[in-house]
């Protein structure tokens, strides 16, 4: 710690590494970025242009006694190596997601953190997304009654980015990229055991790694969730869709366009049949306006800077870390079960 501030250094100064730098430099009391190490010279040059130390090696960064926290923002396959080296050097570690390539690697990282008595935490930043927190509030407060179906999806139409995300050896693919986020969000929302997982993978633009997936999750209560990521979707489906016994809620996009529709009169169930070219349907006729109420989504405040505030408070002994090792392990084993389901084309039991 220097000048009553925690000093952070970054290993891997690509897009996410620089995002962390910009976030911290925008103002987080008690935290500053000192320097970076990256294998690419142009990134070290960029660091110097932003008045950061450009370390000549990872070893030089880890030997810097001023550095309290190391951020690992490398490709996925290097997370374990960097994290363990930093912990053994006496540093606290923030690691980008997914934390590791598999649960065995994660256990090694956890064991090392425990042995070194240092903080090791993963940047599960999507826990601070407003769309997630809004749907979690609706779920927690039973605003739709008992929820029986949750759909969470992320759609794009550009395929996998043309970098390590498309390469197996570096931990590419959409389950490890976006799946880790929406799985983590679901498990933070629904606090019950899972009965089974069924997963199918897409290979529309990339044969080497999954460029999309669908995962059906069945919980012990009977609640079902559909998790979906696609990178070839030119018409996007809603980011969230939730069904309860007394209503439905949807969030369409990143910008919080959405609504809740709740029942106000169960007794008045008459319907005006819908006429189609081939006949009538009364079953699927819409409800009349006087039996339902359309409402705005509840508002939830969120601040991603709280992640680093919690990291510093935990290091100083003033708080417990929000993102816990057992939660990370459950997400990792969930992803492994999803890969096993896709490989065997079977429903896989879980928990």
Description:
The chain has 351 residues and is of the alpha/beta class. The protein folds into two domains: 6-123, NAD(P)-binding Rossmann-like Domain (Rossmann fold, 3-Layer(aba) Sandwich); 127-256 and 297-302 and 333-349, Dihydrodipicolinate Reductase, domain 2 (2-Layer Sandwich). The chain contains nine helices and 17 strands. It has helices at 15-25, 41-49, 58-63, 79-88, 103-116, 130-140, 174-189, 306-315, 325-344; strands at residues 6-11, 31-37, 53-54, 69-72, 92-95, 120-122, 147-155, 194-202, 212-219, 224-230, 240-244, 247-251, 258-263, 274-276, 279-281, 292-295, 348-349. The strands form three sheets. A nine-stranded mixed β-sheet has the order 16-13-12-11-7-10-9-8-17. Helix 1 links the parallel strand 1 and strand 2 (31-37). Helix 7 crosses helix 9 (325-344). It is elongated, with a radius of gyration of 23 Å. The two termini are 41 Å apart.
